[in-house]
Specification:
225 residues, alpha+beta, 18% helix
């Protein structure tokens, strides 16, 4: 009679265990990336939906950014500027980060040229953010291929001055009126506005483009009480 021997069990080698661990880690990372992408898509889609909490029937305009603007607007002042090919769309409804909506004005430029001193201040609960550009700067313009960039601003202009022989202020109503009819290119001074969002993009940029549509040499300061 032959003696029975126990079956030989082969234990996985260290290399196989390492490969299995690697595949498990890769799967977890892929799942995390997929979840992040789904969250980003849901956020982008949801930002364009009308607010059910506000009870307003106006459609909410997607801002084309991965976040929603704060209900505390940016207080923007510009000493001297030039707006290139500006158009105006009134009564545009946007969604804010607290879920509320605002009906405001959308200003679209090919280029916003800052000639002197731009100051942006946002005061929210617990902090104040200040962006100060003491000299010249620009938002938008033309890229290295000669294609127009786009700057969009959502908010309300509370004062702007123009010079026609003499300095005339408080002409923001005329600016809105004519800008809603034809593209305007004009210089202005003492600009003041409460702005919810500013976006500058190069819609025609190639994948290898290194053009930067934002040129605001200055400082950013965050202060708390």
């Amino acid at each position: 009679m032959r003696a029975r021997t126990a079956p030989v069990r082969h234990r996985p080698s260290a290399a196989r265990r390492a490969l299995a661990d690697h595949r498990h880690t890769a799967a977890r990372r892929a799942l995390a990336v997929a979840a992040a992408l789904v969250l980003a898509v849901v956020t982008a889609v949801w930002s364009g939906q009308p607010s059910s909490a506000s009870g307003e029937s106006a459609a909410v305009e997607p801002l084309g950014v991965p976040f929603l603007p704060s209900p505390d607007p940016l207080h923007v002042t510009i000493g001297s500027m030039v707006a290139v090919s500006m158009t105006v769309d009134k009564d545009v409804t946007i969604r804010l980060s607290d879920g509320s909506t605002r009906t405001t004005t959308r200003y679209t430029f090919t280029k916003l040229k800052i000639r002197s001193h731009m100051n942006v201040v946002q005061r929210a609960s617990g902090h104040t953010v200040t962006i100060d550009v003491p000299g010249e700067g620009s938002l938008g313009g033309y890229d290295s291929a000669g294609k127009a960039e786009t700057t969009t601003m959502w908010g309300n202009i509370t004062n702007v001055c123009v010079r026609v022989l003499v300095k005339i202020c408080g002409v923001q109503g005329l600016l809105d009126f004519f800008g809603s009819l034809i593209p305007l290119t004009a210089g202005a001074e003492d600009f003041t506005g409460d702005i919810y969002a500013i976006r500058t993009v190069d819609d025609h940029a190639a994948l290898d483009s290194t053009d930067n549509p934002v040129h605001l040499p200055g400082t950013i300061t965050v202060t708390t009480p």
